[in-house]
Amino acid sequence: MKRGVAVPCFAEDPGELVELGIEAERAGFDGFFLWDHIVFANSGDGPPIADPWLVLAVVAANTTRIRLGTMITPVPRRRPWQLARETTTLDRLSGGRLILGVGIGSPAYGDFGIFHEPVSERDRAGLLDEGLDILAGLRSGERFSYQG
User: Fold this and answer.
1) DSSP per-residue letters across 85-114
2) I want to staple 25 with a disulfide (CB 3.0 to 4.6 A). Which of 12, 63, 107, 115 is the partner?
3) Do the beta carbons of residue 102 and residue 72 sit within 8 Å?
């Protein structure tokens, strides 16, 4: 049985999340996963939020075994080519320990609508499908183009 820790990316000091990831490995956990939000409430209010990819990169540099990733990355909010570069870099930095969790994201208004991005589940699902196609193509190692 594998055991992991999934943690909100809420932090005044991102170093606390880094320490938690390092301690999770020391404690024998198999995975350390951060939530991926910009805003956690539809009101736009909420706790301070650290960037999960930057925190995971520092955790990767200070650990050797624990798997690292997000719970979940809302692909509709990300530019797929940038996400491909970030995830490939983290996977290489960590020696192949990245697990990429993906979905449409929530809260719809807080993480999307506030920034004038699509909020309907159907629209976000379509963007997720398109983003996954682009990620797969970019990570294939082959020449790739996409019309969407």
Assistant:
1) HHHHHHHHHTTS-EEEEEES-S-HHHHTGG
2) 63
3) yes
pTM: 0.92
Distance CA 98, CA 101 (A): 10
The answer to whether the CB of 19 falls within 8 A of the CB of 56 is no
- The model's pLDDT over 81-126, given as tens digits with 9 standing for 90+, comes to 999 999 999 999 999 999 999 999 999 999 999 999 999 999 999 9
Kindly tell me the sign of the dihedral angle through the C-alpha atoms of 34, 40, 46, 51: positive
Q: Which of 19, 51, 48, 46 is nearest to 34 (CA)?
A: 51
**CA of residue 83 relative to chain centroid, distance:** 9
Q: What is the residue whose two structure tokens read 């629209």?
A: 123
State the Cα–Cα distance between residues 140 and 88, nearest whole angstrom: 11
Q: What is the dihedral of CA 119, 122, 124, 126, to 10 degrees?
A: -150
